[in-house]
Amino acid sequence: MSTAESDPVLVQNYLAGRLSDPDRRAFEEQLLKDAGLVRQLEESLCLREGLEILSEQKLLADPRAPRRAFPLRFALASAATLAAIAIYLGFQSVNRSPPLVAASVAALRGRSGAPLTVVEHYSFVALREANSTPDLALPGTGALELRAFAPAGVAGRRFRVTLEEIRNQKSSQIGLAEHLAPDADGFVVIYADASSLQPGAFALLVAPDAEAGTAVERFAFRLKRVSDAATPDRLP
Amino acid sequence: MDAVEHLAAVYRDYPGLRALIMRRVRDPQLAADILQDAAVTTLEKLRAGQIAEPSNIGGYLYRVALNHLRNHRRKDRGPLSSSEELDSLPERDNEPATADIDRARWARATRLMLRELPTARDRDLLVRFYLNDETKEDICASLGLSDEHFNRVIFRARNRFRELLERRGYGKLDLLSLAILGLCMGSVCSAMAHWGRAAT
Questions:
Q1: What residue segments make up the domains of chain A, in order of their start?
Q2: What values do phi and psi take at A159, rounded to 5?
Q3: Does ipTM top 0.85?
Q4: Per residue in A184-209, is it b (16+ CB within 10 Å) or e — as a string?
């Protein structure tokens, strides 16, 4: 007897008990030698069981009928599509959101995409007798130039300047510029987009680049709308 | 291989046989007894060196199990081959869960395969041949099919069914969707972090 690989009818006849005793014994002898025949039997029985299940579920009449369960593949594809749309919109929004703080005013863009011009200049120097927090004018548009005197004794170094916003006594970093070289007067300069800032308390932190634990100069200030602010102190 | 390992292998490697016995006797406990009995008999023959091709013990298992099934259906099922060894076999508490997974896979593959058949007549052919146990001759006569057509439908259906069963786990589209989803979610998180910093 040849293997039933080419004769699934023989396999079905065996399973259905339609073979004569000599044919059944011959088939079973072949079964002992032929692993492929065993696999084919298994396959036939799996297919049969699949049909039994579909029959129980009344799906045999029209296997094209929609499944009751929400297909996982469709759910995944939908989720991926939604996520793709979300990220597209996100990138659009990010692209429309220029940096709040930059080392160069040219890097700042208004909401229309036009470059900003500096409308206010503020310089920060640590004074031994200073004990109050200055109020500074916050214009509605344009760039603020924030100059901070670099810590003494670190000549030749570069610095990072962090702008923190203070709300409910909690500080959160809202801008950072790194690798800044002091100008001829010893100031490091950053620029902030005024339209992205809200009135309130802020702090400018100046520290040498990539040196954890080094002294940080901290300059606290408040920003107020131009109409609310007292006479701006251009040199706090 | 001890008896427990052997029985575990039988349950793992011959789920179709298990399903057939279950369908025929319609009693889970009796079906388990028949399969365990066949497994023990096969193991005893294997240990006694009475299986000519030990690499193909599945054939022997099939033969014994189907003989037990026939005996049962004739109402003259004999005693277990080795009640002592059978008593040592553990209860297979996890068997129904794995069986359900297998059956769900088969049903899905069968359904997909049937959906791909071009005509209702071909679907009818498969149902009558594999499920209703009708003979090839009866089916061909009833549906007006040639031998060649019958063989072609069976051959293609089996191949497709095999392909679908072998396509385990998620399909390529599913994996692609997952990858896109992962990338997108990562990017969304990055964007949100950016917004958090930039927001005032």
A1: 4-56, 69-97, 101-225
A2: -130, 160
A3: no
A4: eeebbbbbbbbbbbeeebbbbbbbbe
| Token reading at A96 | 């429309």
Q: Which residue has the higher pLDDT, B84 or A107?
A: A107
Cβ <8 Å between A60 and B127: yes
Cβ(B157)–Cβ(B113) below 8 Å: yes
Q: What tokens does B101 get?
A: 């997974």
Judge whether A117 and A143 are in contact, CB under 8 Å: yes
Distance, CA of B15 to CA of B17 (rounded, Å): 5
Question: Rounded to an integer, what distance in angstroms lies between the CA atom of residue B109 and that of residue B160?
Answer: 9
Q: In the CATH scheme, what is the code of domain B100-168?
A: 1.10.10
H/E element, B32: helix B28-47
This prediction has a pTM of 0.51
| Superfamily (CATH) of domain A101-225 | Macroglobulin (MG2) domain (2.60.40.1930)
pLDDT tops 80 at residue B14:
yes
Ranges of each domain in chain B = 3-92, 100-168, 174-200
Q: Could you read off the pLDDT of B156-183 as tens digits, one per residue?
A: 999 999 999 887 555 555 556 666 666 7
Closest residue to B198, CB basis, from A45, A83, A97: A97
Q: What's the rounded Cα separation, in Å, for the pair B123 and B117? A: 7
Adjacency order of strands within the sheet including A118-124: A101-102, A187-193, A143-149, A118-124
Inter-chain CB proximity A90 and B191 less than 8 Å: yes
Paired with A149 in beta bridges are: A187
Q: Which two tokens stand for residue A89?
A: 């919109």
Per-residue tokens: B103: 């059956």
Let me know: does A188 contact A194? Beta carbons within 8 Å. no
Does any CB of chain B come closer than 8 Å to the CB of residue A195? no
Nearest CA in chain B to A172: B197
pLDDT in the model for residue A96? 55
Mean pLDDT of A14-42: 91
> Would you tell me how many other CB atoms lie within 10 Å of the CB of residue A153?
7
